[in-house]
Design goal:
There is one protein chain. This protein is of the alpha/beta class. The chain is built from 33 helices and 29 strands. The strands form 5 sheets. An 8-stranded mixed sheet has the order 14-21-20-16-17-18-19-15. Strand 17, helix 13 and strand 18 (399-402) form a beta-alpha-beta unit. The chain is globular. Bound molecules: phosphoenolpyruvate and magnesium ion. This is Phosphoenolpyruvate synthase. Its cofactor is Mg(2+).
């Protein structure tokens, strides 16, 4: 009787599931069923429900055995023993028959022997834990003869060591949790990718943008290729833009090796062939519209096209999540406007795409910031190069174009942080573009066009908070994958934290204080000391830091002491009196060398006092510090001593990091690791100093010399991680490299980095990329 009850609903076809059936089918299963409920094609399959799991446990009398192991053994041993117990137990014959006949039915439907994906689908109580513990086992390309074994392995993963530990701390009884298993036909993916029901670069909701590449979806999702891009107008289902990229690789399943493998396409004609037909793209767009209509919000969708089936049965949706990045306000505004295609537009200049996005507006060609008086909100700034004095103008600009500068120049860094499209290093923008001319800056591709292509957009910035207000931070975070590598965000301007506070980052990995000094304080600290107003510096700096630390509490904020160069300090009010004119400020009196010099030391003490004020008077213990441009051990020790004299000392809740950006720090990593808590790689300066290439040199930049992916730079980073870990220090990175190159993030995750700090616009993509890399690493380990 009991057995019959347990076997009932033990297996359910995906088509029978709905989103409220998480208890039975787990989150993944229930969501797939919901998609099917409104005719979305998902790979066919079935779910072995939580009932089946309970039946298996009851049949083998495992509950009491598991209970006593958990009571008697430590988590690591318990995990091993329970997993073994589950894997060696027998699946009740009637359940086994039911699973295999469901498989046979699926095979019959598909018309041949079918390979399936077997995935865990956590039930409500365990969902949070499942993502926390990486308990998301997926076995790909499973055949009939392996199926039962793989199902048991997925069940066993409920008892991963971390999962047991987690439940202990939350007071959840491990013998009471259950798990469902999704079994789905493997899509033999000819092409795959993602699509968005609004333009990911501009937030324009009139368009569907499809990104596509050959082979398995991993190439696009993990950022391994520049995908083909198709833009489809929703109202007419017409393709309005098509871009074919050079796709350097694809992932395919190799049946001999029983594993996915990377195929190099760089010399194959396939690389430049479009990976999706018009008919397939339009079919995808139709599905995207239906999904958006059902969920009533912009969606981010993964899809695949099967090589064995005929159109349209070959077009599958693999996953659909809400897209939360762009505000609906901006999208609605744009809906009323006309947009023309970029084809046939005159190209004015090209340069480096430094901060993605697109904007149209009136160009203001301004060579001297003092002449920026009539610059209006929404105008486009065209200038030679920016420096901190330009920031107030940059804040109201709808886009920025410069003659000079590379990807780590002031203009590039600030615009990325502000979320404004920017193109740098055009060489001749200030000559070619006329003041007052109407232009369009397509900073996703690095091209400036003549005329207006999109309407001027008031707010180009992602407005996460506004778009999804009312959702708790925990719920918000659960929309994104949990990663073992922490994802931090870089931020310098305290007042924009409110815009970004709901992004899924684990802390601020680099808070540059130069913005607070040049925009809030405005005076040189030594000048303020001279006129008897040092508190002005301390209070304003403390306020700026506290603003960010409060907004994201208890997530940490790593505040970097000042890293102005002499030419930048000179520009502060009263600065000329204290700052020499150096021939080469980039390699001059910057970073720690200032703090330990008799001239600047009193100002450094003010910086320390501000941090102490934030931590002790305001109680914001989530504020840590970082020293920039460290060159030698002796100077760092001296600076640490000054900090101690001011009452700040390394402790369990006060971490002290240093930037690893001068190669000497990496050469002597063991020496430094003993006196600090962590390193943060400054890949901008590290690439410059390792390769001997001025990071702002356009000549060398154009020749491809300035490249953080150079093997010498990568090897240095890897070496740092190895040595730092050996001596107990953590390693992060806050230079631009991982924000711009997903492959650098992959390299660092594989090398074991502890955290990655990226620009606001790269937080979500980096979190997804890192999650997929971590899962790949786990899969590779399992296969071995
Ligand atoms: C770096 O050098 O990588 C870095 C983050 O510091 P900055 O760009 O401020 O020199
Ligand atoms: Mg630096």
């Amino acid at each position: 009787m009991i057995v019959e009850a347990l076997l009932k609903d033990a297996i359910l076809d995906i088509t029978k599931l709905r989103k409220d059936m998480i208890e039975l089918a787990g989150g993944k299963g229930a969501n797939l069923g919901e998609l099917v409920s409104f005719d979305i094609r998902v790979p066919p399959g079935f779910v072995i429900t939580s009932k089946a799991y309970s039946y298996f446990i009851a049949y083998n009398n495992l509950e009491s055995k598991i209970k006593s192991i958990l009571e008697e053994k430590d988590s690591a041993t318990a995990s091993e023993e329970i997993k073994q117990l589950i894997i060696s137990s027998q699946v009740p014959p009637d359940l086994e028959n039911a699973i295999l006949s469901s498989y046979d039915e699926l095979a019959k439907k598909v018309g041949k022997e079918v390979l399936v994906a077997v995935r865990s689908s956590a039930t409500a109580e365990d969902i949070e834990n499942a993502s926390f513990a990486g308990q998301q086992d997926t076995y790909l390309n499973v055949s009939r003869s392996e199926l039962i074994q793989k199902v048991k392995e997925v069940w066993a993963s409920l008892f991963n060591e971390r999962a047991i530990e987690y439940r202990k701390t939350k007071g959840i009884d491990s013998t009471k949790v259950e798990m469902a298993v999704v079994v789905q036909k493997m899509v033999n993916s000819r092409s795959a990718g993602v699509m968005f029901t609004l333009h990911p670069a501009t937030g324009d909701s009139r368009y569907i943008v499809i990104e596509s590449s050959w082979g398995l979806g991993e190439a696009v999702v993990g950022g391994k290729v520049t995908p083909d891009e198709i833009v489809i107008e929703k109202s007419t289902l017409r393709i309005v833009e098509k871009r074919v990229s050079h796709k350097i690789l694809k992932y395919v399943y190799n049946p001999q090796k029983k594993a996915n493998e990377e195929v190099d396409l760089s010399n194959s004609p396939e690389a430049d062939k479009i990976s999706i037909s018009d008919e397939e793209a339009i079919e995808l767009a139709k599905l995207a519209l239906k999904i958006e209509e059902h969920y009533k919000r912009p969606m981010d969708i993964e899809w695949a096209i099967d090589a064995d089936l005929k159109f349209p049965d070959n077009v599958f949706i693999v996953q659909a999540r809400p897209e939360t990045f762009w505000s609906s306000k901006k999208a609605t505004k744009e809906e009323k406007e006309e947009v023309t295609s970029v084809e046939n537009r005159k190209v004015l200049v090209k340069g480096l795409a430094a901060s993605p996005g697109i904007a149209s507006g009136i160009a203001r060609v301004i060579l001297d910031v003092k002449e920026a008086g009539n610059f209006k909100k929404g105008d486009i700034l065209v200038t030679r190069m920016t420096d901190p004095d330009w920031v107030p103008i940059m804040k109201i600009a709808s886009a920025i174009v410069t003659d000079e500068g590379g990807i780590t120049s002031h203009a590039a860094i600030v615009s990325r942080e502000l979320g404004i499209p920017a193109i740098v290093g055009t060489k001749e923008a200030t000559k070619v573009i006329k003041d007052g001319q109407e232009i369009t800056v397509d900073a996703t591709r690095g091209i400036v066009y003549e005329g207006k292509i999109v309407e001027e957009v008031e707010e180009q910035k992602p407005q996460v908070t506004q778009g999804i207000s009312g959702i708790s931070r925990d719920t918000l975070m659960s929309l994104y994958p949990i990663t073992a590598t922490k994802i931090y965000m870089n931020l310098g301007q305290p007042d924009i934290i409110d815009k970004y506070v709901d992004l899924p980052f684990d802390g601020i990995g680099l808070m540059r204080i130069e913005f607070i000094v040049s925009e809030w304080i405005k005076y040189h600290p030594l000048y303020l000391i001279k006129i008897g107003k040092p508190e002005e510096f301390v209070n304003k700096l403390a306020d700026g830091v506290a603003r960010v630390a409060t907004a994201i509490y208890p997530r940490p904020v790593v505040v970097r002491f000042s890293d102005f160069k002499t030419n930048e300090y000179r520009r502060l009010i009263g600065g000329e009196e204290f700052e020499p004119e150096e021939r080469n400020p980039m390699l001059g009196w910057r970073g720690v060398s200032r703090y330990v010099s008799p001239q600047y030391e009193p100002a450094f003490r003010l910086e320390v006092r501000a941090i102490r004020k934030v931590r002790e008077e305001m109680g914001l213990k989530n504020v840590w510090v970082m020293f920039p441009f460290v060159r030698t051990e002796w100077e760092l020790k001296k600076a640490l001593k000054i900090m101690e004299e001011e009452g700040l000392q390394r402790s369990k809740d006060f971490k002290v990091w240093i930037m690893a950006e001068v190669p000497s720090v990496i050469v002597l990593a063991d020496v430094f690791a003993k006196i600090i808590d962590g390193f943060s790689i400054g890949s901008n300066d590290l690439a410059q100093l390792t390769l001997g290439v001025d990071r702002d040199s356009e000549i060398l930049g154009r020749m491809g010399y300035y490249d953080e992916r150079d093997p010498a730079v990568l090897r240095s980073m890897k070496k740092l991680i190895r040595i730092a870990h050996k001596y107990g220090a953590t390693v992060s990175i806050c230079g631009q490299a991982p924000s711009v190159y997903p492959e650098v993030a992959e390299f660092l995750v594989r090398a074991g980095i502890d955290s990655i700090s990226v620009n606001p616009d790269a937080v979500i993509s980096t979190r997804r990329n890192v999650a997929s890399i971590e899962q790949k690493i786990m899969l590779e380990k399992l296969r071995k």
